[in-house]
Amino acid sequence: MKYQNADKILPKKLLEQVRKYYPEGMLYIPKGEDNLSSYRVELAKRNQKILALFKSRVSVMKLADEFSLSIDSVKKIVYSKASTKVLDYATTLESALSFDKKGLLEEWLYTHFLLFEQNEELANKVINNDYLIFGVVKVPLRLITKVAEDEKKSKAPLILDFVNQELVCVSGSSVLNKLRNQKVNTYYAIIIVNKEGDQGYFMHNYGKHFVSTSSL
């Protein structure tokens, strides 16, 4: 995320108006809806291509390798019922599940990082296809070894980043703490794994622990 001096960018009159609402400090300005809309179009094109290849008898496993997706994600794309309904993002588990069932979990995750977490770095990694995404899955909470600082509260699934062979909660720490206090053993989560990391280690040591919501 880049920081600029507003004095050097904004017209004087506009800057005076901004100062009426925010006198001093760093102000985050999120990207506009155009970026989200274009990303939605690109995802739709990708999913249409995957579906066309699947109908021409390309296997799910081969599609997963070709498009750098998890096998479960490809299955949701090729087996989901066609719909023209545009899904609306919300910071809830239900919203994430609705996107996931249509094979559009990347769109929900990108929007969540950009608009709710205001973390442009992670949002860009999603849109640049840097992550292998697993979700929405039920995760044993005992497997989460670290928790990043996160004061924001929402009803969204936990977001876990696989870093240095550990599952780190990067979004939803308040929910996680509440669940642990209530002695809850498992909860819904989205797991992101950097493609430059050891995917084999992740799958061998963690894959067997997760229950996909598509099988519930």
Report on the structure:
This protein is of the alpha/beta class. It has helices at 6-9, 12-21, 33-55, 60-67, 71-79, 93-101, 105-116, 120-127, 173-181, 199-206; strands at 131-140, 144-147, 158-163, 166-171, 186-194, 211-212. It has one domain. The chain is 46% helix and 17% strand. The chain has a 6-stranded mixed β-sheet. A hairpin with a 2-residue loop joins strand 3 and strand 4. The longest helix has 23 residues, at 33-55. The radius of gyration is 19 Å and the shape is globular. The mean pLDDT is 81.
Amount of helix: 40-55%
Count helical runs: 10
Secondary structure tally: strands:
6
The radius of gyration is 19 Å
Q: What share of residues are in beta strands?
A: 15-25%
Task: Please summarize the sheet with the most strands.
Answer: 6 strands, mixed
Rough shape? globular
Mean pLDDT: 81
Number of domains: 1
Structure characteristics:
six-stranded mixed β-sheet; single chain; about 220 residues; alpha/beta
